[in-house]
Amino acid sequence: MNKLLFIDALRGMAILGVLINHAARNIEVWGILGKNVHLTPWVYQIMAQGSRGVQLFFVASAFTLCLSYERRKNEKNPLLNFFIRRFFRIAPLFYCGFLFYTIRPVLLENKELPSFGHIFSTLTFTNGWNPYWFNAANAIVPGGWSIAVEMTFYLLFPFLFSRIRSLNQAIYVTAGSLLISRVIFFVLDSYFQINDKNLWNIFISGWFPNQLPIFFIGFIFYFIFSNFRSTSIDLDRKYLSEFITKKSFIKLLLAVSIVLLVILPFFHHKLIPISFVFGLDFLLLATCLAIYPSRLLVNRFFCFLGTISFSGYITHFYVLNLAHRALHRLHLNYLPPELYLIVLIGIALAGTIVISYFCYKFIEIPGQTLGRKLIVALEARKLWFLK
């Protein structure tokens, strides 16, 4: 599979959005500038929706899995090889994050070790099915809830991909899963099973059944992309009489998708979750970039950021904390909150890029290489037994 630069760019936008969201939450929710200091409401409302970068990751993940699984379907052990690749794609860096965020403070700062259940469920990626473990995972490895959701999707993906074989099927499954997930959500929201209603709402909003329709949007994009690629549409063939019209139309749709990213934070509807609406906009954005990779978004910066995005997702929490400490030492915490937010994002982004590149090069890549070596070793052992 040739490297698709627009997918790296989408991942770069996703991690940037997540970082912006957490930077804004540092000020508005966790009060790092003081409890009485707040961002302008509309500014925070837009910045907070950077958290939808997680859903953009989900859409991109489903899409790339469809591409790679289809390409490798003729391997001797495609199912086993798939799970090995997925595990070694996530686990090595995630477990290093566990050592850094959980074990290091216990050894160096005399902090208490979380409960066995929290640790075990986080390390086995099963914390997504218990409301107490779900949110607590973020204290073990920040962002751990979304990793659990992703790993659950990996577990089901081969079955789903074997059943969804056309664009129409993908659309029907997406609509059906959205309907079912909303019914489940409203039932559970009315009859919550634990005493902490806030924790219960966090759980039923973020757990896998509520995120599954977002993954299915990635399936829709896969079939749209496959159909587009098979027709060999080329927008750069300037001799076509309709070239200007086609290219202008894609540019218009791309502009609409970008404008929607700013408008959608103010969208509220009880029946359709905002995360799903963002998912549809990500589908439009991805389709436009697949056809016309505008340099505004598909450029070296976003592509590089996308390449190291998983490392960035794990490390940016700590880097934000370091950036905040540095700004306090420089007495810049007295800046107006919006200006402080801009400076915080800039410093944290630079630091995240540096640390994430190191993690990508020395943890992610070796981890993936180890997975490939294991696949080769298992194939060789199987051949030895057959002799």
From TrEMBL:
Residues 5-356 form the Acyltransferase domain. One of its GO terms (molecular function) is acyltransferase activity. The keyword Transferase applies. The chain crosses the membrane at residues 90-107, 132-157, 169-188, 208-228, 249-268, 274-292, 301-319, 339-363. InterPro entries: Acyl_transf_3_dom, Acyltransferase_3. It comes from the Bacteria. Keywords: Acyltransferase, Membrane, Transferase, Transmembrane, Transmembrane helix. PANTHER family: ACETYLTRANSFERASE, ACYL_TRANSF_3 DOMAIN-CONTAINING PROTEIN. This is Acyltransferase. It comes from Calothrix parietina FACHB-288.
